[in-house]
Design goal:
With about 475 residues, the protein is mainly α. The protein has two domains: about 1-240, no CATH class; about 255-483, no CATH class. It has helices spanning about 5-35, 40-45, 50-60, 60-70, 75-105, 110-120, 120-135, 140-165, 170-190, 200-235, 240-250, 255-270, 275-315, 320-330, 335-345, 350-375, 375-405, 405-430, 440-460, 465-480. Helix 3 packs across helix 7 and helix 15 (about 335-345) packs parallel to helix 17. The longest helix has about 35 residues, at about 275-315.
Amino acid sequence: MSLKQKTINGIIWSAIDSLGGQGILFVVGIILARLLSPREFGLIGMITVFIAVSETFINSGFSSALIRKRDCTQTDYSTVFFFNLAVGIFFFILLFFSAPAIANFFEEPELTNIVKVLGIVLIIDSLTIIQRTILAKRIDFKLQARISVIASIGSGAIAITMAYSGFGIWCLVALQLSKQALNSIFLWLWNRWKPMLVFSKQSFLELFHFGGKLLLSGLIDTLYRNIYYLIIGKYFSAQDLGFYTRATQFKDLPAKNLNTIIAKVSYPVLSTIQDDIPRLRANYQILIRSTMFITFILNMGLVAVAKPMVLTLIGAKWEPSIIYLQMLCFVGMFYPLHALNLNMLQVQGRSDLFLKLEVIKKILAVPTIIIGIFWGIKIMILGMMVNTIIAYYLNSYWSGKMIGYSFKQQVKDIMPSFMLALIVSGFIYSLGFLPIDSYLILLILQIAIGAFLTILICEVIKFKDYIYIKNIAFSKILKKKLK
């Protein structure tokens, strides 16, 4: 199979994995949002940073190191597996005994038991990282997609049943735990990799030389991305955090999922041609153009339909989250660009530069966090918007310097897609001023006209990035019909 075909298949199955699994959980989240209060979502949001930081230590950057290494052995995999498991158990114990302190910090006593139970997810995650790494290294996302969809359906059914039975916030805990547990069980059953009883110091040090810097980078980035949950939970209220959390979950459906899809596929694919710079640059340029075409359309479209979507799907009690969602979409649309440019640094073996950039970017973000405490959540998100543009410039400058694809060239390539999305979303947003009483009808009208207008403009002007994606889609459909 050619590199292009591997990339296309990888993206398709990674999309099914992310959008299928997360799409199901999105629907589950809508149902739970109607049954639960913003405060209950806010309580879960308060402990997000502690779980996320712990999971970063569990991964330790070894997954990226294994994917990049061309001749991985069973000793390599087993060494990382046992290290991850030990770290997972350590952080579970740490979180378990820190639970009362976390509850006291937020002045929410019920968090104590929630933290203790939810911490189990750390041990579960530590058991599955190598399984996922092996599949990613093979650019085999089909199995992961199947498992993700099954796990999402199963965990969603459990959570909804518990919510209707009056378990309150515990249905959100069960949702996370059951999803990770089902993922782990099916990965072990269907991937069939088994660790050997071996731990190699030499293998550990070799992989840690590259992965250790990614660990620090990941830790810094995780703290930055999740510190807002901690700040809002501490200095505002659980209800305010609930609104922010729900807005983030809506924003993540296109932004984070597309980011995950591209990051998961592009890194192993580009790693296979890391020494062929002209070929690497050509494939990288195609990835950026096609990815950002989809990203701009989805995120700006979400901004335009935010109000009727939120009010239709989860009700008027969540209305304060609308403005947060619209602002966060402008932050989220840059996520895939960050992922691609940072992946290029990893592909070129520059985990040291990756770490330095993370330190610089997060130092620049500190004023945003401080301002948010005193000026409010909206100003804090506005600062996030500024920071993400600065971060994109820094990432693209160095990755572009390595392969001859500069920040200026990248902006020139993606600007047409940005302008197209801006024009279409502006028109869709203006439809919201029509005298339509039903938000559901308005939402359907906006989505239908937006899709039609986008396709019409692209077909008329023969928009290059749209044509590229359309040809790939049609070729896959035709291939299936011929079979």
